Amino acid sequence: MNELTSIVAIQPSIRAAHYHAYSGRIKEKNRFGYCFAFHFIDKGTGFVQINGRSYPLKKGTLVFIPPGLQHSFHISETQPISSYDMYCDFFTKKATIQHLYFDPLHDFEPGLLTEIKPSMELDQLTGITQLSRYPELIQTFIQIVRMNRLDIQFKAEIVNSLLYSWILQLINLSLSDNIPDYRIQKIIDLMEQYPGMNPPYEQWLELCQLKKSQFYSMFKKMTGLTPKECFFRIKMQRAYATIHESERSITSIAEDLGFSSIHYFSQQFSKYFGLPPSELRKQAKNILHH
């Protein structure tokens, strides 16, 4: 039995990447890949069959197909599928752009087949994943496809690094479902942008369109913190950076961060960082003068 390979050991590279409009051609019906394939459905509906199993397709669906598996795409006549397609080597780069074959008995060339190592994480990815709730993953995937077309300095290094990070995020999603949800991310962004505001809890719920229990559990799952703990951490980190990097008075920094009392601010800062804000200011000045 072959030893399982950890997903962190992959060194992905792209053979081919493009935007493709499916039209029902015969070559869309009986395909085999020389390498690993990702298809992100940009529009349309239909289904894909992978080794005889059918998966529904719609906008926001990601399809992952390992090499050598028979698969076929079937499109709706009224809403044909278009997708961003990416064909990758995961372990050893092959100097070829050929990524598909159609008749195993006649046109299969063994030298074009990618290196394959057993991996539990990759096995779990086979089939479809819905990415509609994860716009960051969608945007990065599209960016990788687009950048692969360009002729720029360090293209391979940039694209392959982005692809490696994207695959790990995708695996993380399949394992734990804690990739940022856009509704929760929206609130965290607001906390970062307006750390001095202390809006009522109901305002966050209204922006997210979530019930209080849903919002709380999703926030905690995504960040490991309650909304209150997360907001407090953002305030403290902003306070530290501002005290350390500016000459502004500690009183004005505390007011800007929504603290009505300088005493309470100093107390909370000392508890969080282990030193009072005045001591941090003193240290910052000493560093500056040396």
From TrEMBL:
Q: Which SMART domains match?
A: HTH_ARAC
Q: Which residues form the HTH araC/xylS-type domain?
A: 185-283
**InterPro entries, from UniProt?**
AraC-bd, Homeodomain-like_sf, HTH-like, HTH_AraC, RmlC-like_jellyroll, Tscrpt_reg_AraC-type_HTH
* Residue ranges of the TM segments: none
Q: Which SUPFAM superfamilies match?
A: Homeodomain-like, Regulatory protein AraC
Q: Which keywords, in A-to-Z order, does the entry hold? A: DNA-binding, Transcription, Transcription regulation
- What's the protein name? AraC-like DNA-binding protein
